[in-house]
Amino acid sequence: MAQLTAPFRHDHVGSFLRPQPLKEARSKFQNNEITYEELKEVEDEEIIRLIKKQKELGVLSITDGEFRRSWWHFDFLGGLEGMEYYEKEHGLNFHNMETRKEGIRVIGKIAFGNHPFLDHFKFVKEHAGESTVKFTIPSPNMLHARADRNLESYPDEQDLINDTIKAYQDAIQAFYDAGCRYLQLDDTAWASLFSDETRAKLQAEGKEPKQFMDTLQFVINESIKNKPSDMTITMHICRGNYKSTFHSSGGYNYAQEVIFGGLNVDGLFLEFDDERSGSFEPLKYVNRPDLKIVLGLLTSKFGELEDKEAIKARIQEASKFVPLNQLCLSPQCGFSSTEDGNILEEENQWQKLALIKEIAEEVWG
Length: 365
Description:
Elements: H1 20-30, H2 36-56, E1 61-62, H3 74-78, E2 81-87, E3 93-94, E4 97-98, E5 102-111, H4 116-128, E6 132-133, E7 135-138, H5 140-146, E8 148-149, H6 157-177, E9 182-187, H7 196-204, H8 209-224, E10 232-237, H9 256-261, E11 267-271, E12 292-298, H10 308-318, E13 327-331, H11 346-364
Parallel strand pairs: 1-6, 5-8, 7-9, 9-10, 10-11, 11-12, 12-13
Antiparallel strand pairs: 2-5, 3-4
Helix pairs in contact: 1-2, 2-4, 6-8
């Protein structure tokens, strides 16, 4: 039967390819050729157009495509009190590629203040009408995993963790008060546990994988523990998405009991689009009938359209481990986790979402 509450039977991760007018406006703004007000005018126009397009296609969770962001995570984290952007010597290493050399660091006490993302959400809600708005922010684990830390500000890492949790508790309440009922936490930190190679990197950084995993679980559960009962909070677990490349590989096995049996989120968006993600078997640790598992079976990295029957067969395979009525379908990630975007055309992303909707209606009715 049709799923009428979030996450939906046919859903998506959140980001969309930036349209050319927006790319041009952001470039001009960075070169001081237009004002911020002029950039915002273009952002507003393109987000309104995006909302209209999503509605036309029957998309049930309306987002702003992350059109006001350069990065899926740094823009939000850098907007917290006690944080700043800076240019690093090197970017992150992706498969055969290095990202832009931008980063964030802690320079003071972390807190959620008058964050610009609240206005970003309010704009989408205003123009989405009666449709459900999904708003995406990076998981609190991303501050723990990606931000450089000033030891003078936080000599004790546990104090940083505690303040991060408090900031996210305040953020969740602020988004709720603004009208948000569907919030998604995007998280790549879990992928550090998915292979021998990435766990070895953690150990080289002085982090014991089991302890790191326990910290990730603690931070998520504490951050969302006060969420209102009528607010849905999901988490997207990702292995990296930058210009159609990836950061890491490996199945969910090492962290399977914690991810599927120990997190108090309402839904999990999971990558299952290729062999890098492993098998469905870890799903056997799902131990709650109210936990929705959103299968990311269609890739957002390339434009080639998947075979419908093959996707339906994979859904049936997953249902051997989780009841079909707990499953949903989406792309494996966003189409544009950074403003650079993945290597596909705008039309490709709409074709993917249309196929997902078609499959969902045939599988669940």
